[in-house]
Design brief:
Layout lengths: L5 H9 L2 H13 L12 H6 L34 H13 L6 H28 L5 H13 L4 H5 L1
Keywords: Repeat, TPR repeat
GO molecular function: mannosyltransferase activity
């Protein structure tokens, strides 16, 4: 017969505890952000930003700031976040160019999912790269998942 090393199996499963707990904490912490409309500066960053719309060439994202202004313009405050703008553009393409409360809710849900994934990856990185034990990595991952600094990026 085949012998199962229960200790090794337990260690293997315990390596998933910190990432799973971190992802679950992120999903719980931001569960109220799954629905909603565009708020705060979303109007400027998404609705009024020409780089979010397919009519603007994709290369413009690499020469414009977060708000859609050319980086060389006096109107630009030089905030350069092309991947964020690209994600807005992808959401809008998925929604077939329609910005609505439903599109906004889908954007919020995607942000919450991505934050949960990042929280899990952070906890796993703590285990593998920083050689933290399961408890240390879980604490670090949980803190990352629920820290208020992420509220604006995830929930709005």
């Amino acid at each position: 017969g085949r012998h199962v090393d229960m200790a090794a199996l337990g260690r293997r499963w315990s390596s998933y505890c910190a990432p799973l707990a971190s992802a679950a904490a992120a999903l719980c912490a931001f569960s109220n952000a799954h629905d909603g409309e565009l708020v705060f500066d979303d109007v400027y960053a998404i609705v009024q930003n020409p780089d979010v719309y397919p009519s603007t060439p994709c290369w413009a994202l690499w020469s414009h700031d977060f708000w859609g202004f050319p980086l060389t313009s006096d109107l630009s405050h030089k905030s350069f976040r092309p991947l964020t703008t690209l994600s807005f553009r992808a959401h809008l393409l998925w929604a077939q160019g329609r910005l609505s409360d439903e599109t906004a809710a889908a954007m919020h849900r995607a942000n919450v999912f991505l934050h949960a994934l990042n929280s899990a990856l952070f906890a796993r990185t703590c285990q593998v790269v920083l050689a933290m034990d399961v408890h240390q990595a879980a604490l670090a991952g949980l803190l990352f998942a629920v820290h208020p600094v992420h509220a604006e990026a995830v929930a709005s």
